[in-house]
Amino acid sequence: QVQLVQSGAEEKKPGSSVKISCQPYGYIFTDYTIHWVRQAPGQGLEWLGWIAGVNGVTRYSQRSQVRVTITRDTSAGMVYLELRRLTSEDTAMYYCVRQPGLSAFDVWGQGTEVLVSS
Amino acid sequence: TVVAQEPSLTVSPGGTVTLTCASSIGAVTGDYHPNWFQQKPGQPPRPLIYSATNKYSWTPARFSGYLLGGKAALALSAVQPDDEAEYFCLLFCGGVWVFGGGTKVTVL
Lengths: 118, 108
Prior knowledge:
By secondary structure, chain A is mainly beta. Helices cover 0% and strands 50% of the residues of chain A. Chain A is built from no helices and 11 strands.
């Protein structure tokens, strides 16, 4: 069964960093691009960036590119999202999403809740 | 780039409702690869449509995506109470992906 399994909830202090993981199961890891999307409480969805499966190339939204880094460990079969200099506005549910081909976003992780609080 | 959706729509059971998705930089075409997602409280988004018109194997036949008048659109027909949810569109704009603000569909 194809699924994306994300790491558990995190509680962080303002100014710190968080690194959350996404582990694909049921398919060849490098065959697909992985995106990261977040959703603040009661708000809409925000696309953060992607990492290409074939070559690890990344692309970020203009807003996220300063503080966000997406990486992968091909030997471990993991994708990571790191967010630096956290503020309360980063409190959100973070999702990884698989993109097969050019357009579809077909499999979503279960989400990782990040709470930024002093 | 701003992607605009109706904030809320209300539909009667059995009726039809159409949601739209517009881009601030111009008419939405197939090059924008429109996607539609359904989200219910406490759940991750559920993919419904990709590339404007294509359905997933789990997408109800009552749901249809298309391009019309420079916008992407999602039509829900024979609406059921279980269709009450938030619906988000996603467009590929200038090399990055941008979500719309979402449409809250109420079945009443």
